[in-house]
């Protein structure tokens, strides 16, 4: 999805969610974005990781120190799971794939705004394999610290691997969806603490 198309689509979605058009600011320049973040009090930040991956990750970390309550969502390609993991480690609350439909983008943003976090099969597999790699290597480097998942968090990731959505998991174990989304958000927070 090219930037102007995504800007128009995201603007339309955010207006539907109640964000006033006059309060939305766009830039394709990360230096300018950093300046804007210092001048404004953002509620929701969308960052395209294709602009410059290392500078984008750095911007996410800086923003979390300046505006810890802002919701940060990254935009990237679906096959970029390791980059998504890096972004979660930097402190993002969610993601949107270039391949997502308008409905999927809307659902991801709604999930994030109500305190949850999105997850898909490849990310669940990546998180679980991160655990396996740690258990097999027992390295002492900071990068290889384990993610201390609870039994329910591991179960949720495995059910995502089995092809269930968070909604289906909530129905299967008979709990409200927000509880499942809360567990997923908790997994994000554990990754951010690595």
Describe this structure in words.
There is one protein chain. This protein is mainly α and 194 residues long. It contains 9 helices and 3 strands. The chain has a 3-stranded parallel beta sheet with strand order 1-2-3, sandwiched between helices. It is globular, with a radius of gyration of 17 Å.
CATH topology of the largest domain: Rossmann fold
Give the distance, in angstroms, between the N- and C-terminal Cα atoms: 32 Å
Report the sheet with the most strands, covering strand number, pairing sense and barrel closure: 3 strands, parallel
Overall tally of domains: 2
CATH architecture of the largest domain, by name, is 3-Layer(aba) Sandwich
Contiguous uncertain segments of 5+ residues? 137-143
Characterize the quaternary organization of these chains: single chain
Rg over CA atoms, rounded to whole Å, is 17 Å
How are the strands of the biggest sheet laid out side by side?
A: 1-2-3
Helix content: 55-70%
Overall spatial form: globular
Q: Based on DSSP secondary structure assignment, what is the total number of beta strands? A: 3
Average pLDDT over all residues: 90
SS-derived structural category: mainly alpha
**What is the CATH class designation of the largest domain?**
Alpha Beta
Q: How many distinct helices?
A: 9
Q: What is the CATH homologous superfamily assignment of the largest domain?
A: Response regulator
Bin the strand percentage: 5-15%
**What is the ordering of alpha helices and beta strands?**
HHEHEHEHHHHH
């Amino acid at each position: 999805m090219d930037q102007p198309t995504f800007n128009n689509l995201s603007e339309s979605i955010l207006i539907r969610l109640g964000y006033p058009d006059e309060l939305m600011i766009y830039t394709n320049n990360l230096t300018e974005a950093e300046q804007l973040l210092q001048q404004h009090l953002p509620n929701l930040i969308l960052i395209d990781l294709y602009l410059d991956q290392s500078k984008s990750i750095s911007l996410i970390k800086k923003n979390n120190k300046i505006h810890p309550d802002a919701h940060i969502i990254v935009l990237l390609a679906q096959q970029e799971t390791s980059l998504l993991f890096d972004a979660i480690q930097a402190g993002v609350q969610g993601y949107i794939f270039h391949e997502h439909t308008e409905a999927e983008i809307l659902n991801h943003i709604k999930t994030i705004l109500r305190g949850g976090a999105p997850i898909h099969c490849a990310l669940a597999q990546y998180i679980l394999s991160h655990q396996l790699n740690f258990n097999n290597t027992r390295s002492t480097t900071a990068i290889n610290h384990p993610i201390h998942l609870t039994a329910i968090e591991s179960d949720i990731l495995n059910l995502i691997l089995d092809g269930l959505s968070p909604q289906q998991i909530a129905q299967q174990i008979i709990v409200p969806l927000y509880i499942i989304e809360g567990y997923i958000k908790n997994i994000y927070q554990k990754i951010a603490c690595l």
